[in-house]
Predict the 3D structure of the following.
Amino acid sequence: MWDRLSNLLCARRRRPQKDASLDADPITPEFARLMQAAFPLSTAPGALRVRVARICQTGSAVARRAAASRAARWHRTIGLSYRLVPFAAVGLLLVWSLWSSEKRSGSAYAEEAPTAGQLTIVDDKGKAIGLCPLKHTDVIADIAGFVARVQLRQEFHNPTEAPVEAVYTFPLPEDAAVDEMTMSIGSRVIRGEIKRREEAREIYEAARAAGQAAALLDQERPNIFTQSVANIMPGERVTVVISYVNLLKYDEGEYEFTFPMVVGPRFTPGGGYTVPGQRGDPSPPQAIEGDPGATSVVTDADRITPPITPPATRTGHNISVTVNLDAGLPVQDVRSQLHPIATEASGPTRRIIRLQNQDTLPNKDFVLRYAVAGSEIQTGVLAHAVGDGFGYFTLILQPPQAPPQSQVSAKEMVFVIDQSGSQMGWPIRKAKETMRYCIRHLNPGDTFQLIGFNLNLNPCFPAPVPNTPENVAKAMRFLEPLEGEGGTDILRAVDYALRLPDDPERLRMICYMTDGYVGNDMQIIAYVRKHRGRARMFPFGIGNSVNRFLIEGMAKEGRGVAELVTLNTPGEEAAARFYRRVSHPLLLDVGVDWHGLPVDEVYPKHLPDLFSARPLILKGRYTRAAEGDITVHGLLRGRPWSQTIHVSFPSVQQENSALPTLWAREKIEALQSQDWLGAQLGRPDPKVQEQIVATALEYRLMSQYTSFVAVEERIVNVGGRQRTVDVPVEMPEGVSYEGIFGDESAEAARLLEAKEMRLSHNIVTDAGGWAGAPGGMGGAPASPPAATAAPFSPAATLAPRGVRPPGPSPVKLRRLPRITGQLNVGFRANRQADAVFDLDVPATSGEMEIAAGTPEGLKRLEAMKPEQRRALLARAKLAPPLQRLAEQVCKHGVNGSLRQPGLPEVVNGRVGVQIWLNELPPDGLKQLQALGFELAATLRPGKLLLGTLSVERLEALIALPFVRRVEPPRFK
C-alpha cells in the first residue's frame, strides 16, 4: 500500500508528545556532543541518528548524560572498533529505549525468552514482564437459512505483576449488526450498555481511573472496531463476548459466510505507520472548510492503524472458528477458500464446520462457501411480530432467468490498477493476471483505458481507445513492468476515471483492482455517490484480507457489483464472472409497487440493478397485520418485465427474531450514506447524527456515534495505576513488510530481534537470507500461492512475510570491497530519512517500453536522432536528481568532488547509484564493469545492484538495454 518514501512525500509528522520540544530538530548540539563522546568514530546513518535522538529527547537531561556516559565506558572497556560502530549505535538506541519508555504505554518486541518469536510487554525499565494480553479469539457462528448469528469471544490474560489495560483493534464484517457485549471476570458477568460514544468514553475513563474493571467497544469504521479493557489485574483472565447478526451473501448458486481476522495496514497521509510494532501516529491537525473534493483526508489515523507485529515474530494470540450450519435443505459442497476445515454431518441439512487447526494465525479472512439442493433462493417474505401493532419483514426476490441476448451493447471499459506498496509482490501479480483477461476479452465495439496509480496517476493512453490488436498489445506491455510501491491515493484515481469525457454511445464501466487499504474510505464512498453520473463501478478486492467496506461501498454507490479475488483464486475465473455480469445484466431500473399495503421505511431506498444471480433483499416495517399482492418491475434485456408476489404480514410471528436488528442496521447505513464525508472529516451533520444515535440506542446497536461500555461496580485496582498495552496484529497474508514500511523500518525491526549480528562498515546482508524475508534479507515478494481450490499453505511454498520458516535462520553476511568517499554501505536498512530526491518513475507507456527494453522500445530508439535518443533514455531510465547531475557535469565539466543541495554527492568524480535491471544477461556484470561500475552490493539478485560509477559514464550506463532504471542510492 505504501512505503517509507511515501511517508516522506506526504510530509509526515511524528506522533505528538507532551514535551513541545520534540517538534524541534532532534539532533541537538548536546546530543551531537554526547554521541561524539560516546562514539568518536561514529558514522551512524542519518535515519538511525534521528531515531536515537528522538528517544533521547523523552528522557531527562541527567538520564541522557548518564546513558551517554555509560555508552562511553562501554566503548573504552571493549575497545570498540570502527567497524562495529553501526552496531554500537543500535546498542545506544536500545539503551535509550530501556531508560525512557513512557510509563503509561507498554512496548512489544521479539524476545528470546520465554517464547522466542512472540511479542512481550516491556516495563518502563525495558524489562520483559510477560506476553501480550490477548490470548485467544473464539468465533462461533450459528447459521439458519441465510442469517448468521455470531459470537466473538476475546480472552485477555494479564501475565505480569502489575495491572494492565489492553487495547485491541480488530475487524468485523462490514454489514455486521453488533447488538451485544458482555465482560466476564471469573463467575461475574457484566452486560454492556449502549451509550452515545462520548458518554461511553467518559464512563470508561472514570472507571479506569477509579480502579474498576471496565470494557469499551468503539466502532471506527463499519468493519473496524476497538476493544479496550481496563484494570486487568495480575494473573487475571477477562473474557469479552461480542455478538452480531448479518446476512450471508448468495451468488451463482452458492452461499458465502465470511469472518475477517485482521485489519490490513491503512495508508493515511500525514499520519499512520512508522515502524512495525507501534500503533500509527495520529493525524496532524487539519483546518478543513467545506468539501475537500479529491484531496484525501484522514482525521483518525491512529484509531485505524493497530501495531503490526515485526517481521519474523507473531502476536502470541490465535483464533478458532466453529460454524453450526442449519441450511434447511440438503447441504452440498462445503469448502473453505483460504483455510483447511473439518466438516461433521449431523443430518442432510446440518453441518458443523471447524478450522482444522483451532490455533490458527489470524492473518486472513475465513471464507466458507456451500451450496444446497435446489440451490436457487426462492422469492418470498419473512416476517417477525410480537403483537404490539407492527412488525418487521424481509422480502427476498430471486432474479428472473433472462433470455439469451443476441447483441451486446458497446461499453467504455476503464481499468484502474493499484500499484502501491501493499500490492508489492504477489498481489499485483494477481491483479495483472486478472486485468490481462479483462483486456483480452473486450467486445469488438468496446473502447478502453488502463490506469495505474499509487500516489500518482499513470494512464496508458491519453483517452479511451478502440479495442484493436495494437491497442491491446500496448496495454499488455504497459502492464508488464508495473510493480507495487509508494502510497495509495484511490480518491485521485476515482476522480480521474469519473472525469474522463463522456461517450454518449457507450456506458462507462469502471473496474478497480485494489486491496482498499486506505484510511479515507468513507470519503471515497461519498465521492462516488456524489460524482458517479452514468458510470457503473465494479471494484475487485485483490488479496486475502481486503477492506471489504470500501470495496462493497464503491460497488453499492457506483451501482455495480464487487468481486473478491483471493491470492489462490485464478484471476481469469473472477474476470470471466465479471464479464458475464456486465455483458448480460439481468434486471435494470428495479422498482416495487406495494399497492396500499401498510409498509413503512423500506430499505434500500434506491434499488440496485441486478448484474448477477444475487437476490434482491428489501428490509422494512409494517404498521398493522395485512395481506395482499405486490408487483416487482424492471427492464429485462431492455424490455419491460414484472412479477406479482403474494405477501402476508401477520400480527404475531415469533420466528425470525433477528429481523428488527437487521432492519435497524440497514436504516443506520442508509442514514450514514447521506453523510459519509461528515463522518470522515469528524464533523457529522447534526440531523443525520441524531437520527443514527436514536435508532442505535433504541435497538442496542453499534454505530459511528454509539458504543458499548461495561463497568464492574467493585474497585479492583486502588489508585487506578496501570500500563496500557496495544495488542499487535499480524501482517495480512501476502502483504509485504517492505511495501508497507520500506526497507529501513522492516529491517530495523529485524535488527531489534536479532540474536547475534555483527556488522561493520564494509559488510552488508546477503541478498539470500531466508525465503520471503523483507528488506536486507532480500526484499523479494512472498511466493505466490498455487491457483487452486485448495487453501493456500505457506509451508507448501516459500515462507510469506512475517512468518519464519521452521529451523534456524542465521543472518548471512559477506564482505565487500570498501567504498571510498561519502557513500557508506553498511547496513542497507538505513534509508535516507531526510532525502529530497524525487525518485519518480517513467510517466508514459512509451518511456516504460524504453525502460523495460522491449523490442518495440528498442525499435523506437533506433529510429531516433542521437540527441532525441539521449533525451528519451534520460527521461525513461535516469532519476531526476541524476539527470540534473548529468546536466551539471555536461555544462561545467565537474569531474572532481561535488556537494550541492538537490544533487547526489560526487566524490573523486564518482557517484553512488542503485541500478534496477530488467534481466541481467550472463555477461551483464562484465558490461557494467567495462563502464567503470564498481559493485558494492547485490541487493536483489539479478534485479537491483548498488555501487559507484563515474558521473561521465551515466549516459553510457542507461544506454544498456538490460538497465531499467538508475537512481541515487536510497541507503547511506
